[in-house]
Design a protein that fits this description.
heterodimer; A: mainly alpha; 67% helix; 0% strand; disordered N terminus; B: mainly alpha; 68% helix
Chain lengths: 580, 555
């Protein structure tokens, strides 16, 4: 019987419920083999991963349907029509519809290329005269298919490579619970990444191209976390510049990535006392700077040539917008505005004005009671909050993998990136609720690596995705969006149970609160107030409730960063003592 | 999802638990307990998500006056049943125009429509004035009503079946999860119910429930099973496709009792079952039992023999072979009946002589497939009946199940394409592969390919290779069908002469697949005793793992 078992593929045996621990024990007892350490086999030939990939693609294919169209679909169609029909000189000045181009140049090139593909495939609806009209069915399917293809190219591949290197490096680390094998941890991480409801809801049901920038960011992290290859840093810098030019929200994480590059290239283990090594480091840094600048210049060259820089920048950074988007993103300012409303209500002053805050985009709405907050204050706050992560990144070169029990460079880079994005999300000026993806997606592959990450990810993902739900408001989308959210939360709960990450009482209560709140928004509110009164109240409650979770996750992230700092210091302490 | 790896308990304990569960009662409340419940919850949620996403596709006849489609039929039935007394439901009157989606399902369907109608927005079920009523909110309401019906009937029934059917296997818990997931995911059913719009899952759920009850070897569950099966018949007359298998299975059980404990015992057994059938029918048909005319009116509506041998383009024998030999299209009901009985005879006889659980489900599959291929008045959606039965065998023959699911979807593809749900079709085909891949580690089956008892790894490897070839062949054929469909559709010269040619390409291909399926099912029959011996051996813990299939190469 045992002989027959030996012939089985490893995956099959694990499937049978035999973990590598028990197998090793059996073999040790028999005295035949030495202990076996099984590395994560993150390969698509594994049926579980293959089926996971198939499921992810199947879900996305299902979402390609032409029925439900959002404004963002119109926006991107108009941009395609614009880039295809208008000279590059006028991209950022022409106004063919109310949706003017406000993404960075590389994204505009991408739109141009996609419009070219649409013309080759003879998809109707990408002409100038179509701009501003409703997108037709075949154009919708085409647009969503481009999202699918680009997501597979960038985000799927990035996540796959990331999980592969993250879990391969773990070695005999006992950080996670013993019941979770490497490969099953990797599978869970991949399922959290590939099947993330956030991406499905924002990129497909609502329609955006977040996956490109996110995928490039993951690839950047993989390269920055790579400790062996020299050229990895250069490619990483180039990739990040590229990513930045597809979506400028990546500026949120730019300080962190910059610090990581600096940290990795400057103090890579050896002491910097000799002038030669210092010079070498400076040269590396110079080289990286040149790579970044060249990439940037190459991308911007048409606009430099035509003298359009000012126009592009003006479109990309519209500072005339208010502190809050029309739907409040679940961050600190949502709580601030909510408090303001409450105070205004209690004090009864200027109530009319205060209640009408939910207005158009681009309207700066002052608060009724509390002092207003400007862009500078927001930026200063975000940067201040990022400081621990930036400092950690600067110390990255000191990290020795072997004695830092499994918390690899890649993991730390990812975590700091996610944390920086979260800082900008929590304190930033005019943040969109969709920006939560930038925090959740890099954290997803990390979450099953160690219980501490899981604890942060669980509350952040649930709160952040809950804040996304009001994005889908048509009657037909209510069941899918709730099913997405509940399924994701239940799955997270099961994963954390498996990793033996317990819930605190507060967390338990908070998670159940989602259900109560959603029931209120779906049923009780209309029953209570009718369809036309107080329609902002559910939205306000949702974003404030989600904001609490996001803030808690941010605080936990901050705590985790301090812990990492301490561990790093403790790790370096004995070493320096020994060398002296 | 990964639960089945960790949640594996002792086989004996599982068996003991199953025995106590059987002894206690046969109700759906005997849900499995323990960590599996979490897995089932995740699968249920995922299924609801999938259903609701498919539901975003257009329904049958959306925005197509004056007749609309099946969505309007269901809405119209709600309108009729809530406003008219039951005796008026099936007869022509000035308020009930039978030519406009007259009620042609048995009473239980009508009762369900009546039940749903009482929760519906009043303007959507107003008599006569609400015809063709469409709105975003009502659309979502109707779609959600299907999901609710699924949650109430289909999911519990499947869970009960999975826990009953999987108890005697070595990897019972894994099988239970897998059975539940594969049945609940059954993509073709989801497409028909949630995209096209019907309540098939309720009827099929009642059938699955009856099978789950009939699989237990004692009197009370058998009677309850008869009750559930009669409800299924009264929900949708097409469940008659299974009736022969069920009848012969019960006869076989009776003959076992005859041999074991004598004539009187067997006779009482049959009498009790007949009583259950009679009581169920009487109570469901109560409002019409006053006069013979009422009963006749209902029967005429429920069995519309005047509507021809098949509807639309069906992947059955008469429609496909009729392409090549015209007279077959005008075949009489009697000839159909003879052909059907002939085709189902082997399955009936085998379940009569050997009424065990696998033979029973296999017989259900075979008989319903025979009915689909040869009987009278077949719709393309009736492929769901053989599909459900074959999918119920998925833990024994994953390969058969994945094949059947793919072919069933192929056979309804023209319908879906006409309604604009072809993308849902593509996604569903992928889901079919995905679910089987995840739960069965490839679509290799564990029914032994040969009679040899040797379980050497070389023979299983050879079998795996064979399955891989079959998978590649089937995949290629399905892809080729679609290529031909798209190609022919774009040739105006052909379309002008034969407008239905693309549809026939698909249906005739599906017919060929279904014929092959019939042959495979026939060939499985004599081997079942052998398979039975393999799996019921309580000590053979290693046996299952030896035939652990190889990963599937995805074409």
């Amino acid at each position: 019987m045992d002989g027959a078992r030996e012939l089985l593929p490893l995956a099959a045996r694990e499937r049978e419920g035999e973990y590598h621990e028990s197998r090793t024990l059996v073999e040790l007892a028999k005295g035949t083999t030495k202990p076996v350490y099984i590395m994560a086999r993150v390969t698509l030939l594994d049926p579980t991963l293959a089926s996971l990939l198939t499921l992810s693609v199947a879900l996305r294919v299902l979402l390609l349907h032409a029925r439900y169209a959002s404004t963002d679909l119109n926006v991107h169609r108009d941009w395609m029509a614009l880039t295809w029909n208008v000279h590059v000189r006028d991209w950022y000045t022409a106004e063919i519809s109310q949706w003017t181009l406000d993404y960075p140049p590389l994204f505009a090139y991408l739109e141009y290329a996609l419009a070219g593909v649409a013309h080759v495939l003879q998809v109707p609806g990408f002409e100038l005269e179509d701009a501003g009209t409703q997108v037709n069915a075949s154009a919708t399917v085409f647009l969503r298919s481009t999202v699918l293809v680009l997501e597979i190219l960038f985000l799927f591949s990035g996540m796959y490579v990331l999980v592969g290197s993250l879990y391969h490096d773990r070695g005999a680390d006992a950080a996670t619970a013993p019941s979770v094998t490497q490969s099953s941890a990797a599978t869970m991480a991949l399922s959290l990444g590939w099947l993330s409801p956030g991406i499905l809801m924002v990129d497909y049901m609502h329609f955006q191209y977040n996956s490109i920038a996110l995928g490039l960011l993951l690839w950047t992290c993989v390269l920055l976390g790579n400790e062996r290859k020299r050229l990895a840093l250069d490619v990483g810098v180039a990739l990040f510049v590229t990513a930045l030019n597809t979506k400028h929200t990546l500026l949120y994480v730019a300080p962190c990535i910059g610090a990581a590059v600096l940290g990795v290239s400057f103090n890579a283990g050896e002491d910097l006392k000799s002038a030669w090594s210092l010079l070498q480091r400076c040269l590396t840094l110079l080289r990286l700077g040149v790579v970044g600048t060249v990439c940037m210049l190459a991308i911007w060259s048409p606009f430099i040539y035509h003298g359009q820089i000012a126009h592009v920048l003006m479109r990309m950074f519209p500072f005339q917008r208010g502190l809050l988007h029309s739907y409040w993103a679940p961050n600190l300012w949502a709580l601030y505005a909510g408090t303001d409303k409450l105070l205004a209500f209690v004090m009864g002053s200027e109530r009319e004005k205060a209640w009408s805050t939910r207005g158009l985009v681009g309207v700066m709405h002052p608060f009724a009671v509390l002092p207003s907050v400007g862009p500078r204050a927001c930026s200063a706050l975000s940067l201040a909050a990022m400081i621990p992560a930036i400092l950690l990144m600067l110390r990255l070169g000191n990290l020795r993998k072997s004695c830092f029990h499994g918390k690899t460079r890649l993991g730390i880079v990812l975590f700091s990136t996610a944390y920086c994005a979260l800082c900008s999300f929590v304190f930033g000026y005019h943040v969109h609720e969709k920006a939560i993806l930038l925090c959740v997606i890099p954290l997803a592959p990390l979450s099953t690596l160690a219980p501490e990450y899981m604890r942060i990810f669980r509350i952040l993902a649930c709160a952040g995705y809950y804040g996304l739900l009001p994005l889908l408001f048509t009657p037909a989308e209510q069941v899918p969006k709730c099913a997405f959210f509940v399924l994701h939360s239940v799955y997270l709960h099961r994963v954390s149970q498996k990793m033996q990450v317990n819930e605190s009482a507060g967390e338990w209560l908070y998670m159940r609160g989602f259900v109560v709140l959603e029931l209120y928004c779906q049923f009780v509110h209309t029953w209570w107030f009718g369809h036309d009164r107080m329609h902002f109240l559910p939205l306000m409650l949702v974003s404030m409730y989600a904001a609490c979770g996001v803030l808690v996750a941010w605080a936990m992230g901050l705590g985790r960063l301090f812990a990492l700092h301490c561990e790093l210091t403790a790790q370096n302490g004995p070493k320096s003592a020994k060398s002296e | 999802m990964e639960d089945e790896t960790s949640a594996r308990t002792d086989t004996e304990a599982e068996q003991a638990r199953a025995v106590t569960r059987v002894a206690l009662d046969g109700s759906a409340s005997a849900m499995p307990v323990g960590p599996r419940r979490g897995a089932l919850a995740v699968i249920t949620l995922a299924a609801v998500l999938w259903h609701s996403l498919v539901a975003m596709y257009p329904y049958s006849g959306e925005g197509l006056p004056p007749m609309y489609g099946d969505f309007e039929a269901q809405r119209h039935w709600m309108e009729l049943t809530v406003n008219l007394p039951p005796r008026m439901w099936y007869v022509e009157s000035e308020l009930n125009d039978l030519k406009y989606w007259g009620l042609d399902y048995p009473p239980l369907s009508a009762y369900m429509a009546r039940l749903f109608a009482s929760f519906a927005p009043p303007e959507s079920v107003a008599l006569v004035t609400s015809r063709g009523f469409e709105s975003e909110v009502f659309r979502a309401w109707m779609r959600n009503s299907v999901i609710v019906a699924d949650l109430l009937v289909w999911f519990p029934a499947v869970a009960l079946f999975a826990s009953t059917y999987a108890t005697r296997r070595t990897a019972a818990e894994r099988d239970e999860t897998a059975l539940f997931a594969v049945l609940v995911a059954m993509p073709c059913l989801v497409l028909i119910d949630h995209a096209h719009f019907q309540y098939n899952a309720v009827g099929l759920g009642l059938f699955v429930l009856s099978v789950a009850l009939l699989l237990r070897d004692s009197l009370v569950p058998d009677a309850l099973g008869c009750f559930a099966f009669c409800l299924a018949l009264n929900f949708k007359q097409m469940n008659l496709y299974y009736a022969l298998a069920v009848a012969f299975y019960l006869l076989g059980k009776a003959s076992q009792r005859l041999r074991a404990s004598g004539l009187a015992h067997a006779f009482t057994y049959l009498l009790i079952l007949a009583g259950a059938v009679f009581v169920t029918f009487a109570s469901v048909w109560w409002p019409w039992l006053g006069t013979w005319d009422d009963v006749r009116a209902v029967l005429l509506r429920v069995f519309p023999l005047h509507r021809g041998v098949y509807e639309d383009k069906v992947a059955n024998a008469w429609c496909s072979l009729g392409l090549f030999y015209r007279p077959l299209r005008r075949v009489t009901p009697w000839a159909c009946l003879c052909a059907t009985l002939l085709a189902s005879a082997p399955f009936c006889l085998s379940v009569l002589t050997k009424p065990d659980r696998r033979t029973f489900v296999l017989a259900c599959a075979g008989v319903s497939l025979s009915f689909f291929l040869f009987s009278y008045q077949v719709h393309e959606k009736h492929v769901l009946l053989p599909l459900t039965a074959v999918t119920m065998l998925c833990s024994d023959a994953p390969w058969l199940s994945v094949w059947m699911n793919a072919v069933a979807m192929l056979s309804v593809f023209p319908l879906l394409d006409r309604e604009g749900s072809s993308l849902a079709y593509v996604g569903s085909q992928l889901l079919n592969v995905c679910v089987h891949l995840f739960f069965f580690r490839g679509i290799d089956d564990s029914m032994p390919p040969s009679k040899s008892t040797s379980s050497s790894s070389s023979s299983s490897a050879a079998a795996a290779a064979g399955h891989r070839w079959r998978a590649v062949a089937v995949t290629c054929h399905i892809v080729a069908c679609h290529a031909a469909y798209e190609f022919v559709r774009r040739l105006p010269c052909l379309i002008k002469r034969w407008p239905d040619l693309p549809t026939y390409v698909v249906t005739v291909s599906s017919f060929l697949h279904l014929c092959a399926m019939y042959v495979v099912l026939l060939r499985l029959l004599p081997r079942l005793p052998h398979a039975q011996r393999r799996y019921s051996s309580s000590a053979g813990t290693a046996e299952y793992s030896i035939t652990e299939p190889q990963p599937l190469k995805l074409g």
